[in-house]
Specification:
The complex is a heterodimer of chains A (417) and B (99).
Chain A lengths: L5 H9 L17 E7 L3 H14 L4 E4 L15 E2 L6 H15 L1 H5 L10 E5 L2 H16 L5 E3 L1 H7 L15 E5 L3 E2 L2 H14 L3 E3 L4 E6 L5 E6 L2 E10 L5 H6 L8 E10 L9 E4 L4 E5 L5 E7 L11 H14 L8 E11 L6 E4 L5 E5 L9 H14 L13 H4 L5 H4 L5
Helix pairs in contact in A: 2-7, 2-10, 3-10
Chain B lengths: L2 E4 L4 E4 L4 E5 L13 H8 L8 E7 L7 E7 L5 E6 L15
Antiparallel strand pairs in B: 1-2, 3-4, 4-5, 5-6
The chains are: A alpha/beta (417), B mainly beta (99).
Chain lengths: 417, 99
């Protein structure tokens, strides 16, 4: 596999770019693997990469029912931040952010990680108090976050309307400068290429139909569209379809799947320097390097696997964007889409072991899984390799819904839910 | 956008008139103090979340204000039936089933 560098670019430019290798082979399944990962999104591919790189386990298959990175990895709004309230979440997301910072170099693949800052707007007294509480909690945890006045917010991001007679007046903002965006497809491709280079098989267009368990209850392998594949360890990283896959292993999950929609505008010249989120009016927006405004809506209210979602959500989001950013009122939207997100009761991930021996799960990321990609993948690989929780993912167990030790970010975090 | 039939008003109206209210037919425990932690978990947190027919509650918030139940196919989002609270879940398999 070609190492990407300025030299390789130049060399291939001189030969008309005809000699590039395939970035990863399209593998067919073998009869048996040490580890099977269900779902070739960023999380699953990343786990395969870290299994191979950090734990020396290379006899790994990542099985995907569609195409690589075609689920929520390719459907999110690419926002990366770690300003979560609770200690457990702060550690997990900040671990991910640490890994994001060197990811392009590590994978030899440009993930276009851009620390352009994420600014969260406060529109009422409750927002101001809640954000300042978050800022203090974050700083105690060593997580970057600071308070901006409305004027400072306007200076940082000029398109924001801070007029006091706005329908949703801006009273200030929380700014995480270390946060930003990355190119979502490149994350999946970079992990896939780096994992394949270390011997991981990436098997696309192969749905996992069920998980087979042996007489002693432990995992034996997976039934797929291409036949039975044996493995002693199976890690499910299937986002919105996790509860369907887990049910086949006899585990009912505390998850519900909802459509989450996003949309992009026509491309325009650079006009928007950062990511802005507003939880109160429910709008968040950034500008991609191609120039499109990337706008995220909320989840639809009902359980669905339709990957489509309803228009009322889009209408609500666009109305909020037009109020907060009047300069975008005449912008034309190019396309919208939906992904299916698996939402847990406390809005925190479920990451680790399950009651079934040899079965691991990485799910419940809800509307915010992209930012966690390297951290989730890294700690999942640890748990699969050692059959024990990583110190960072240890609180994110499935058992917490029995013990009551929830990580209740739903009510308390600066999360757009 | 979903078009939802309210069985009380007997009208089919757009989704923004309604509020979703979670999975239907989850009965509160008759004797809460006798429940184990696992039974509490199942009651509070575990949901069927099917890729297929889902029984769910809706409330006609901008109309009669009443709760009712529905059966909806979660891949196509097509409603199979809506029915009043307290009525049994219509059959979706076997003879005489909805399709």
């Amino acid at each position: 596999m070609t190492h990407f560098s300025a030299l390789s670019l130049l060399k291939n430019a001189l030969t008309g770019n005809k000699d590039w290798d395939a970035q990863w082979p399209d593998a067919q399944p073998r009869n048996e693997y040490d580890v099977i990962i269900v779902g070739a999104g960023g999380h699953g591919l990343g786990a395969a990469y870290y299994l191979a790189k950090e734990h020396g386990i290379t006899n790994v298959a990542v099985i995907e029912k569609g195409w690589l990175g075609g689920g929520n990895t390719g459907r999110n709004t690419t926002i990366i931040r770690s300003n979560y309230l609770y200690d457990e979440s702060a550690r997990l997301y900040d671990h991910a952010l640490d890994l994001w910072e060197n990811l392009s170099t590590e994978l030899n693949y440009n993930t276009m990680f851009s620390r352009r800052g994420v600014m969260m707007l406060a529109h009422n007294v409750h927002d101001v108090q809640s954000f300042q509480r978050h800022i203090h909690a974050n700083r105690l945890n060593g997580v970057d976050n600071r308070w901006l006045s409305a004027a400072e917010a306007k200076e940082f991001c000029p398109p924001v309307n801070i007029s006091p007679d706005a329908r949703y007046p801006v009273m200030g903002a929380a700014l995480q400068m270390r946060a930003g965006t990355a190119r979502h497809d490149a994350v999946a491709w970079g992990y896939a290429r780096a994992a394949a280079k270390r011997g991981v098989d990436i098997i696309q267009n192969c749905p996992v139909l069920s998980i087979r368990r042996g007489p002693d209850g432990s995992v034996e392998g997976v039934e797929t569209g291409k036949g039975f594949i044996r493995a002693k360890k199976v890690a499910v990283s299937a986002a919105g379809h996790t509860s369907v896959v887990m049910k086949s292993a006899g585990i009912r999950m505390p998850l519900e799947s909802y459509p989450l929609q996003a949309l992009v505008s026509e491309p325009v010249k650079p006009c928007f320097p950062c990511v802005v989120m507003s939880n109160t009016v429910h709008a968040y927006i950034s500008q991609s390097d191609k120039g499109e405004l990337v706008v995220g809506a909320g989840t639809d209210q009902y359980v669905s696997y339709s990957q489509r979602g309803g228009l009322p959500l889009i209408e609500h989001t666009v109305a909020a964007i037009c109020e907060v950013f009047p300069i975008f009122r005449r912008m034309r939207m190019l396309r919208k889409w939906g992904g299916i997100v698996d939402v847990s009761p406390d809005r925190s991930a479920i990451l680790g072991k399950t009651p079934v021996k040899g079965l691991y799960v990485n799910c419940g990321w809800g509307t915010g899984g992209f930012k966690a990609t390297p951290g989730a993948a890294h700690t999942l690989a640890w748990t699969v390799a050692k059959d024990e929780p990583h110190p960072i993912n240890a609180p994110f167990t499935l058992e917490r819904f029995t013990t009551g030790r929830l990580i209740d970010e739903a009510a308390a975090a600066a999360v757009a839910h | 956008m979903l078009l939802i039939h309210c069985p009380y008003c007997d009208e089919t109206l757009p989704e923004p008139e309604f509020a979703y209210a979670g999975e239907a037919h989850i009965a509160r425990p008759a004797d809460p103090s006798s429940l184990s932690d696992e039974e509490w978990r199942d009651f509070l947190f575990v949901r069927s979340n099917p890729r297929g027919v889902h029984a769910e509650r809706w409330r006609h918030v901008h109309g009669c204000g009443r709760f009712f139940n529905s059966l909806r196919e979660t891949v196509s989002d097509r409603f199979l039936a809506t029915y009043k609270a307290g009525e049994p879940r219509p059959k979706t398999d076997g003879p005489g089933a909805l399709s």
